[in-house]
Specification:
Blueprint (H helix, E strand, L loop, with lengths): L3 E7 L2 E5 L5 E5 L2 H10 L3 E2 L2 E7 L2 E11 L2 E8 L9 E8 L6 E8 L2 H17 L1 H4 L3 E3 L1
Parallel strand pairs: 1-4, 9-10
Antiparallel strand pairs: 1-2, 2-3, 5-6, 6-7, 7-8, 8-9
């Protein structure tokens, strides 16, 4: 599994912290920070919380954000031949570039779903500057 790096907003940009908490880079823009993480074979650690719909937490359903922006969602599959597996989704718009994307998959465990979503979102943001506002499917 890829190592998790923290990417934090600062007054002048973003800083990247390695898995031990040491600052390894300071950059101006979020896509640059995410690209730095990708170049090291890592993924950005997202903030996870229970998904809430209509003021009610949804069982076995979690949403991810980064710096206040929606990043994706994981949930257990409740029916069909994939029942009990974890589905993950990265859908939305990169707030820095306007690029849109939609990526999804299914994994056997919650931890695997988190790892795949974080890795996909990291790559999506990292390469947003290079590909501009377009819709991609992986």
């Amino acid at each position: 599994m890829k190592e998790r790096f923290e990417v934090e907003a600062t007054e002048s940009g973003y800083r990247v912290l390695d898995p031990d908490g040491a600052v390894v880079a300071t950059v101006e823009r979020r896509p640059q920070a995410f690209e730095f993480v990708c170049d090291r074979g890592g993924r950005v650690h997202l903030k996870w919380a229970r998904t809430v719909i209509g003021n009610q937490p949804v069982p076995h359903d979690f949403s991810a954000t980064h710096c206040g922006f929606r990043a994706g969602r994981i949930m257990t599959t409740i029916s069909g031949d994939q029942r009990g597996r974890w589905a993950w989704f990265v859908n939305g718009r990169d707030p820095d570039t306007g690029r849109t994307g939609s990526f999804s998959g299914r994994e056997d465990t919650k931890d695997q779903a988190v790892a795949h979503l974080e890795a996909s979102y990291t790559e999506f943001i990292a390469y947003a500057d290079k590909y501009g506002p377009t819709k991609l499917h992986a």
